[in-house]
């Protein structure tokens, strides 16, 4: 096993560990460890809410999830020799849930969760159609996930980190705050908000000194969106065997990561759409000197996905166009067309006995694929969502004999008030 | 070979054939043939510009492409027993280029083309960055495509029809015209336009009688966008072996199709991004009675893709977020984030010696995959574009040794004026 | 379409064509055409019995199949620049059944056949268990094969030539005749025979002159076995997109080919186990000068299979060891262990309602995979045979509910006397 | 984590553990644990030589490997409700190397080994060509294996148990001893031997009582070969996600397993061809009552392989026929034709700078595929071996430019005397 450079004790809170991570982006957060190129290291990761979401049949925890506290990031790690302008090469050697325990209280200890977030607390891709909070607990058996809240499906996990990235420079951070502030200013009271400004409350800043804390907390960027440094890209294909190339903006790159997922569908559509969990990841770093300019990668990661993802040979796919549910034509809006494709898939699955929320939770968590199929055929873009048919334990294909009827069981728990 | 129910003579124009197709959607276009369920039939298809684009080293034909004349559709075909409310099941048994000839003047006769359309004549996904007209000719060798205009790449075709669909009802047609007219009215002089209104000029309406022609031509919908009936979905995965389910809106379904592609990348990003060609397609139809309601499929096709597409095990992927090139933050705009991902891929490829236009043409034509990776992480969506590395005859991966330099050859022809 | 350098008229016998092929290997058979390197060419191929097997519900034709007349080979083709010691690179650009006709009398015209050969006329892999002649007709619909004689299965063809090879030198031919003669001499009256000696009767020798004919016919090798020159390898993975490297033994390489299959299982176990048909193949040749020595390929083809074969994600596999049916232990005999694995698969399929012969025919024709799983665990080798479950239209997996029962239909026709 | 029903302490010998396994097959070896159907359990497994092979640069340990002591099997486990005539369904939920340690002395602790066994001590598939003992150590980095003894290759492990099986009944055991004894009697002094008779020396029989020990040890079957009960099948595809169906011969089935491999090529051709290691496996059991008769599975396992094996899209394949190296023609001998295919692959790889032994070790350990391509074309069978090209860090394909030359490094260690 590689050396553990960021250990986590499952019985303690994230801020009470031997090494303390962070939940904001800022260039002044000091590295917790220095790593040589070419050496394999293991890093433990905490699930993004640090235990606030529990393994039960209620969604009150989702309704009240503490969004100001996320994401719990392991790091930063300084990579020896990395300098601004370089490309940081990150090999994901292995990644998995918390080992060695069975039924502990922490997501990753044999289980994980997916949530539909309330419109008043985060929202989601289809929040207009699904404004209330729901939860699904998934149990892990080997590499398979199943759920008492979403019956008749099981699928292999495609375990990956939702969030990995390098630290921004001061200039880059300022740019983020400026452009996101400009967006928020166009509709500052919107629910859910257009973007998330710096927020000192609940800021966790690793080894930032007391004297600097308040200033840094007031500047540091929230971790929700993906940005030039990678960040919360939620790319489900960054499974083990992947190689990712990040731009470097500060000396040492100061790489951080977290938000492990046991599985996720393309888009992570329920907001907390993946199967969230804590776990470990084994990484190895290299540096391509001057690679940002040499390869024209000044922002956003490029990557080569792993080759051991589950293989599916049969898919059922749904398409959507950029017309709203109430019939308004939008111009080449692929976000909308993917919403419509997902809604079509949900409508379809309800014909088999699933509640709409069960279907929505399933699309967030299962290894579905979302494609930008047509983006130029004015005025309609065409997006498609692909469901692997073998994750269902019944025949989910259309036929003359009509849909099989499942027993929806106890259903997905719903919170008391949206 | 199945019976040819819509033959085309490659030496004659599309409107001079034994059976004449159409280039607009209207419920009153009468079927050219009636087809029994369960019977295999062959249908010839003409390339979408009916020979206006030629195999040469100039892009003047792309600049002046007659957009009012498209698409050349074979059909409509009435399927016996199909009625409104049914689902029409379409099996793509086989599809390929025009057989039996070598180097004829018609796309599909051993070659095809991809165009970047000028901003003044159609535009494209990246028209702000690429306002001028360019062309690439692709030669077919067996199942492989190569181009003198885009060197050092070759790939297997994933042949598919860009456009298939059922006829709209009068009500559905009226709905299309209303909502698209509303959109156009918001900026009627935009270049390129927001949408395409009915256009009698160059309308081809199959067997519509002279007395009805002018009225029908004034109502009939243009074929550019995908809509409730399927239509120009440009889904590259509808290759042979696919099964597609279409809603039926009129008696007989009145199914039409055309716009065959030898290959296409997800999105068909250069507007005429696929490798356009004429050819043949073998289909078989069935009907699921009442299937629209039974399965909740009231609009847009659902489908099961074929299982014999080329297999790639290694990809190089690029990500983008919803920030414009000049730094403005947009809110969860997946169309924009896919544009940025594609621009990142183009920037990268130019480091190997390709011109930006060669890279753009390649992304339109090769079997790239476009994914909606993250759609909820406010304010940035994250889209990704995947390039199979094995289509390049050099090592396209980043490495410490820097990019290999290709010889870009004669380059992609550019039209005289944008 | 590439130039047709070996055309066949489906209405005429193989020996009455414009260009006449051959059915024996001999260095003195002169080339029918000369081909430049790098140029695509099309070659028509006749099914191996030249029309003796017909599309009906009788197996008398299989019982009496004229084994002395096979294989009908197109060629030889001289490749410009090829010399002994070179490697001949053959790219299979495309391959398919006879185009342009529907229900003609020749296999390849929309149908093909599989035969269990009688022990008295050829035999087969399991001839002790299946001594009598049976036949199955397969119908082609697009890329799919189905059979009225083997119901409830359908599968995509993996079309390939069963036989391709270069001409032997005189020395190599002499070596073949010597070693095969030695084997025959150990049991000259065996039924079926151990090997097939040169046989002047029915020898077809292309352009060999009358004065040389008798001598050449007495020396020329039969085409049944694969040998140093490639030959009848029956490798089902030589589908389109494959690249094959053959040793060159004579000037020009004198490449010949034939015995097209619409599909075949690994091993072609019923002797005529593939789905036999006539068709066309598009090839392109190159030469690696001195490649035999440079790469150590002095005999037997090496190859890179194509990448567009059907994709299966679920298989049901059977294993066997080198113990005979009556309990005798053999020493590490992988041929026997594969026989036992196939017999286990046949036993299993009969539990679903298939006759043993239907199951045997299916294993010969469908894209099953045969693996040498363990070859060192004395005294038992372990071979395995993999069946893709999705070729069955019922659930073929073992379960507590027991096997589904098919209607075996009219069954596979059996010849009157074994 | 599932309950560990068979724990192993890496610091102790296999026979000194809390629960003691066995290394022979006998119906009277009592179960070490009873397992309920449907419950996930974890079982630790020791590498087959229990630490006799060490991580160094010498092959003396391979030369002197204690073959009488193998295999170290975990079990037997009694499955509640299983009775003779049933099928035991075994789901492999997960399998991996020894967790939680880095560089310990036991194979599985971050490394594994492959050996070419000396002809005088075990032999191997190509023992006539490779009579001496060699060793390669493989290091595990995440899911990848690399070796200082076989440079320029790396590949994902396809971790699997080489040996799983149910206990034989007394009748079945007697049958084994009879038929294998009959074989040995045909050449009792052969080196290597034809088969392995019961051998009391070093017999480890779990909980067999002292009073029964000598009798049982004299009867118990060696574990080398696969047999009716499954056993040492060495099927590399029994990776996680696999479901295996075993015939049940005794009450409780008495299932045992061991011999974990980090990777293996089809055939495990070097005898100890896999990458041997200790580790863990998570299993779940079910029973199909009366399944042996219902499904016709009276012997040898049937199975459904997992779906997360590494995906390769490009292979280089070698073929062989049943002619010996010195030119003697054998009759349809697939064992011989696979030997010849493997020798061709070895010859080829030496042209790139590998020693023959390095190439042989590589073929044993890497995920190569061995196919029975043609088994009926008298007198030659045709076997093929497929190498995934992407496991090499250079271009291993034939080309006009000739083979790349690797640095073979320190080479594979060779033992002092054969």
From TrEMBL, chains A, B, C, D:
<dbReference type="InterPro" id="IPR004304">
    <property type="entry name" value="FmdA_AmdA"/>
</dbReference>
<protein>
    <submittedName>
        <fullName>Formamidase</fullName>
    </submittedName>
</protein>
<dbReference type="GO" id="GO:0016811">
    <property type="term" value="F:hydrolase activity, acting on carbon-nitrogen (but not peptide) bonds, in linear amides"/>
</dbReference>
<dbReference type="Pfam" id="PF03069">
    <property type="entry name" value="FmdA_AmdA"/>
</dbReference>
<dbReference type="InterPro" id="IPR054833">
    <property type="entry name" value="FormamaseFmdA"/>
</dbReference>
